[in-house]
Amino acid sequence: MEEWEGLDAAEARMDSEWFRGDVCASYLLARCVEREEQFVPPASSMADESKVESILPFGKARSTVKGEPLSEEQVKQYNDFFQASLYLALGMIYLRDNPLLREPLKLDHVKARLLGHFGSAPAQIFTYMHFNRLIKKYDLDAYYVSGPGHGAPAVLSQSYLEGVYEEVYPDKSQDAEGMQRFFKWFSFPGGIGSHATPETPGSIHEGGELGYSISHAFGSVFDHPDLIALTVVGDGEAETGPLATSWHSNKFLNPATDGAVLPVLNLNGYKINNPTLLARISHKELENLFLGYGWTPYFVEGDDLDSMHQAMAATLEQCVTEIRKYQQEARESVKNGNKDGHLKRPRWPMIVLRTPKGWTGPRKLDDKYLAGFWRAHQVPITDVRTNPEHLKLLEAWMRSYEPDRLFGKDGRISDELRNAICPAGNRRMSANPVTNGGQLKKPLKLPDFRDYKIEFDQPAQKLSPSMVNLAGYLRDVIASNPRSFRLFGPDETESNKLAKVYEAGEKVWMGEYFAEDADGGHLSPNGRVMEILSEHTCEGWLEGYVLSGRHGLLNSYEPFIHVIDSMVNQCLEVEWRVKIASLNILLTAVVWRQDHNGFTHQDPGFLDVVANKSPEVVRIYLPPDGNCLLSCMDHCLKSSNYVNVIVADKQDHLQYLPMQDAIEHCTKGIGIWPHFSTDANEEPDLVMASCGDISTHESLAAIDLLLQHFPSLKIRCVNCVDLFKLISHDDHPHGLTDKEWTALFTADKPIIFNFHSYPWLVHRLTYKRPGAHSNLHVRGYKEKGNIDTPLELAIRNQTDRFSLAMDAIDRIPTLHNKGAAARQTLLNDQIRARSQAFEDGVDPEFLTKWTWPHHGLRKDQQKQ
């Protein structure tokens, strides 16, 4: 192997005018062969393919780490295993029959629709199989994360050869028949996807959406002290914002208590049809990038297999040795009394692996470049069904991997080869229990949420901080589960009024400390609160933490949770996967209290996104007060396999339900509130409904206004906590039946529904309901907002008490013209309040300090 020092002369020449141009120096460097005279400097600022041909292939390995730890026999075994893996990868993409090519390849053997990605498979397989040696040598607890998009052929081939796949799917056995079924159901109707879907053993990261491999990997190793997440990052994936930020996860990894992530950045040069950025910057710039991120980068580059095997084996062993050294030092430090001290933050190792895209594939397809070029990214040869010559080329390519020799008459690799490369039992990366996290999950030790109840004498009389109160409960959840629960959030825990949690677990921090940090900084390497100003990274950490068998909660400002819209997906119900803890998201700093921040902070539409997900998976709760918030949170933390979203404001609010009533109300999910209703045992004139804490406040205030003007009005007050109660029972397991719907809302009375989010969501959920088309009138956020007071924001969107009361007058048939005077008074009061808000900058006190006056209701009405 050549040393990096031997490249100094080449790099110096690249700094000269001779090598200036749009063809990047590292692009040439990475593809140079051993003999310097084969360098072809660009004659202009554009490189044509004839120049590229002369600098490909990559040549013998160049690596930072020296050494040849493999014997000749081991190198041969690695070559054989590599070829067997690549054969399987191609077979998944192309074949539906004749899996071992025991007869000439015909059109009938080829899938009618060719799907899948081959380009990143060779480097991923190469990395995976080389790490197996170290698992066996050091008895490592490790698993693999496939970051490159649609990289399933790599990990599926490894699971199949390890023997895990046929253990999970017995019909995909290691013989000709099993291999045929294995090939056919890849990217095939009724089969599995081309990324590492939940059906893939050993996978907690799909790779279909790029950018989250590193954050998922880190989430999985927090509180798993012996676990190593070997994570391959695609150089296309590395261009995404979430991935770029997630490199900073190393500042949150405690070597004393956590495991480690070993990232391998695979520079294969191209995305679907473009070069990648990190593959076209100089070696020095790339090295400095990762040094700046706080990593120690080690480089392995080339395509000559024998030398690459030695280089990769030596480099991975160097990385594992460093990881174990850092962990041992930290754990010895803690053992010697440094329990709360400032542990040294390691510069964890990472690898830059530069290999050709579609490595080992044909160099050319007709007169176009294939291996080493973007054309190898997806299906390398796309027209084998219409071009007989290309079908022959595919067959020759696949036969070059020697399936007859490697899989033999039984259609399986030899036990000798498997035992030489693969670990045994749960040490096989695709069998690691951490990748089926439900096997490791233990129930949380939860305090009794009733002990944190908010007490009051009369409903809607007491203002209390619901979120601050919840923080006391979460603090004790953290204290009771010091190694299996973490709170995640983008620098908002304090702002979201959850600061009490720091009493049980401070913010995880492995960076530098300043003296002033002691005053409210709450920083500690042993913390339980994860904060980084990146919703992507926080969500990725949480997902990795939960998928690997633990529990967590993400808290975030409601308007900015849209950043993770596309991430909120739960694993499918796969029979062999054990249920994991639910993915819990707490949204606060809600739209109706972002009046001071303006339109950019006013977006409650995350609920629309979640409502589109599978009804078997998602749940949405909008507790109206503090006791309901406690009940909902306790329920969500105990649940499994759901995405739970709780929406609750962080400011002080009126409290409506004593704890027992709150439990009953949350258990039902929706119900009549007799304390605020006047229709007991009678036909209502109006149903006044609400969903959301602030929406409920204004709805009750509107009932108060109506009763002031019309004391004999029969009003039914309905409150919804579980949003999916509104949908038909046929479409969601939580949905009400039509009989239950009419028992609450009637089938023929006007309904004024004040909703926290966009009104169209309620219309969409209730479109099947009896009478909903003509009687249901929803008020919610309608993109009307700026720098307003809370009242002004509500008026703009017609969710304020005055608008609701006037709307009711307009829709109650018995009032007709009798309500005209009252309506005029309400409009005048609204204008007066709004004018005062404009003048003073705050809403009038008689509105902000409003409480329920009871209106002389009978005791049986109040307590019914």
Automatic annotation (TrEMBL):
GO terms for molecular function: aldehyde-lyase activity. SUPFAM superfamilies: Thiamin diphosphate-binding fold (THDP-binding). Keywords: Lyase, Thiamine pyrophosphate. Residues 650-852 form the Xylulose 5-phosphate/Fructose 6-phosphate phosphoketolase C-terminal domain. Signal peptide: none annotated. Residues 70-439 form the Xylulose 5-phosphate/Fructose 6-phosphate phosphoketolase N-terminal domain. Gene3D superfamilies: 3.40.50.920, 3.40.50.970. One of its GO terms (biological process) is carbohydrate metabolic process. Its cofactor is thiamine diphosphate. The keyword Lyase applies. Belongs to the XFP family. This is Xylulose-5-phosphate phosphoketolase.
